[in-house]
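G.,

No rush on this.
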Amino acid sequence: MATGPGATGASGFGSEDSLHQQVLASFPLCDMTEEDLRQNPQLCKLLATLAQHVDKTGLTAHLKTELEKTEQKLQSQRRVWLCSESFHSSLQEMIQDYTVRKHGSTVPQDQKMFYETMERCLLVAMCARQLDPSNTTKPDQPSLLGLTPQQVMEIMPSERNVQRMKQILPREVEEHLKKKCFSYLSYYQPEWENQSEGLKRSKLSYLSGQMDKDRKRTKSLKESSYENAVLLQRQTQLCLSEMTKCVQLLQSLILERCLTIQADLDRKKLDYFEGKCELVLQKIKAEMAGIQLDTYTAESISAHRAIRINLESELQAYQVEKQSVELKLSSFQILGKEFDTLAEEYCKFRQEIEMRNWALKEFTKDNSS
């Protein structure tokens, strides 16, 4: 009997059926069935032992810890990037709103100065960032359009306008974000669209938590949907396997049944055709009897009987004459070949006499005419 870690790990799962179920549950991403595990017991033991060291995704405890640390670090860096990206995106949206608004209505001079200053500052910062050489570029590589970040920074707005823009910026950004949050709230819960600003503010304090709950619920539903899909696929494969076995068994039963009843069926067909032929023959005989009854009446039958009697009497007379002639012929045959020669000459004379008699008759007929 096998010993060692593999046997100990496999025995910890319980009975064989329980072992198969727990191995399948431990590796949901593997496309396996219980039949596969039964046909490969060593693989089943290996997976049972491996399940004690890895999770359902196939990661060991050490790798999972390292992955969690890396994900936390990535999340922290992602938050920093998202903050700056969200702020930059908000500024771009504010500039777009101003651009649309200034074509439809008159904008006050102070707002016009604020948005133009902010737009120029963003544009200069973006250009300076693009012109700033990175660590991967070559030191002697020429800059874009022959410009340097210092040259681009020279077109920045005046320091006075920049300071005024910085003073107004928090209030404008807050107002823009408030409108954006109210639009999210109206989209997420349309029934709060016509409520007062105070109620909307209080509702906004719970919106992030509610959205987080919905996100987690959606994620849980996706995971359960994936697990259900895997389970459904496994059950479908098992069902198809069982259906294939049932079809094979049904085919064997049908073949056996066909071979069993074929002889009886052939015998019944033979009896049927024999009876049908006998019936056809009887019908033909009945039709022939009917035709004879319609053709031969009582008078014709009596006449036929009289004719038959006369013919039979004549036949008997001819047979008697035949016998007498045969006796004479046998007596002539005794004479031998000389009689054959005389008989031939006699036949020739008879033929010549018949020819002359015919010619004489024709001659006399012509003279009389």
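When you get to it, here's the other one too:
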Amino acid sequence: MLIRLFALTVLSLPLTALAAPPVRVSSPDGRIVVELDSDPDGRPTYAVQRDGKPLLAPSRLGFLLVDTPKLDRAIAVTAPRTRSFDETWEQPWGERRRIRNHYNELRVTLAENAKPRRHLDLVFRVYDDGLGFRYEFPRQEGLPTVRIREELTEFTLAGDATAWWIPAGEWNREEYLYHRTPVEAVGDAQTPITFRLADGTHLSIHEAALVDYSGMNLTRVEGRRLKASLTPGIDGAKVTREAPFNTPWRTVQIADDAGGLVTSSLILNLNEPNVLGDVSWVKPMKYVGVWWEMHLDTKTWASGPRHGATNENVMKHIDFAAKNGFGGVLVEGWNVGWDGDWFGNGEDFSFTRSYPDFDLEKLSAYAKSKGVVLIGHHETSANAAHYESQMGAAFDLYQRVGVPAVKTGYVSDAGQAKVIGADGKVHYVWHEGQDLARHHLKVVTEAARRHIAINAHEPIKDTGLRRTYPNWISREGARGMEYNAWGNPGNPPEHEAMLVFTRLLAGPMDFTPGVFGMKTRAPDGVATTWAKQLALYVVIYSPIQMAADLLENYEANPGPFQFIKDVPVDWEETRVLNGEVGDYVTLVRKERGGDNWYLGAITDEEPRTLKAPLSFLDPGRRYTAQIYRDGPMADWKDRREDIVIEEREVGSTDTLELKLAPGGGQAIRFVAR
């Protein structure tokens, strides 16, 4: 049921008063206050307080433009208008079913006091869990086309803070291990970037609704002052838009502790509602795939004697999926083009022609007869231009044979992608630039026309557009499980506990957990225990979850594999019981459409004992806790397979003691009686 409460208040003040800030707006609970002001040179600034304490000191706003004077000085803050909004909306799939969208909004006009007397609106929406703001450019004489060289938006932390961040502008996109530094040591950083202040308050700076605009990174200028740094474009303009248009929302999530960031819905709320209509065809699912064996180098994407995507191998995976209740089978390396220099090139890929030993129609029909679907794969090597030339035909083919989901890929060197510019020429651009923002949304909308869901790897960052386009079902955008197959280094034990409070604040991640074969090509193999691999199905949210390991490893270990078979991917509710960034976390989630709860707890290289109060369970009801925990000798270094599986009866008044081995975890299924 949709509940709406809408109020509009216009502050009718004389123009002379409107030009004399500060202007304030607070969150519905009154704890967060945003203040707009101007410095002595007429540069607009904003500041943020919480509970009367400064979080963001006065931070500048404005733009550098390519072919017209900058917009940042001699600007009056005029015509403030406020309104309040309150609704509860339902996700078609998600980490929680119902989301409250409750904010107070302040809209002001930023108007130049001198020629050329341009103007634009600045809109703040302040929630109990943070704030978002954006610029809105109207069409006006002298500025019909806006060519942005750089945003001057700043985020100046008011006090000392610890930061968790990955570098921006590097060749490997988002696939870096996180730095933990004082804010004064941040360099060029991607978003989301997470901070912990001295009093324990946590912040995350990111953006929402990145549409036809360049992705925002942050550059530390001096001290604790961070400035927006837009991803470069084809020419001197990082963004070119015809007015009227809006920028993405610049977001600041705020919480008392790390767990509060995880349960924030700010990013989703700042996106537009679903525009696709009925999306019942978007199906959350668990899947297996012809994938991990290529990363282990026992099979190949390319054709030949070790080709993975053969009829025989795919049918084996279909049979396994059907037997064990999995919804899909991913197949990589099925299409012509993998035999040549495909890495960062992609010119030879065909998205409609199969290798001779892969019969798409036959396999799709076989999967359907077993109650399973094939998941398609389109590796583009970041050659967006080449992909777009075939994309329509490729989606038409999948629609005809009944492939309802596609994993796309954008592997390349130097973080570049190939596009056709407005001049009709080929250009090489950054992954997060305006051209790739347009491309990724084109992929999603073209797929939606055929009722196909998209899971993008090496993607543009997640900014909550899954609310508007629910077929954008997941993406990668960080170091995934494959680094444990061949990475040097692989993912360290702290990695997953880091992702929960950083990358995953942006949205779902197709991390591909569930590996039991701990020895790989990576020097340390898979730096977790088996129990932690199971816990990742609860801890790392995605509406599609892969059982990533070789099928024989599951067949040989039916005990721990049972949890992977049982755990859902779509949730009614999510709570964080405890957690610290990069150290540990315990999450519980309630299955959608059922009464059972699931718990996942993980730690870094340190062993930990965590308390888990079960007050989230229904009062007065008994549950069977099916527990998958680290054994007494478990350790990520040499006893990763040591696992204990047991049951006990519990209720809402109980508290469990979770003992986690170094690099370990615990997974629990609470079955309602």
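The CA atoms of residues 161 and 197 lie 4 Å apart. The two ends are 29 Å apart (CA to CA).

Enjoy the weekend,
O.
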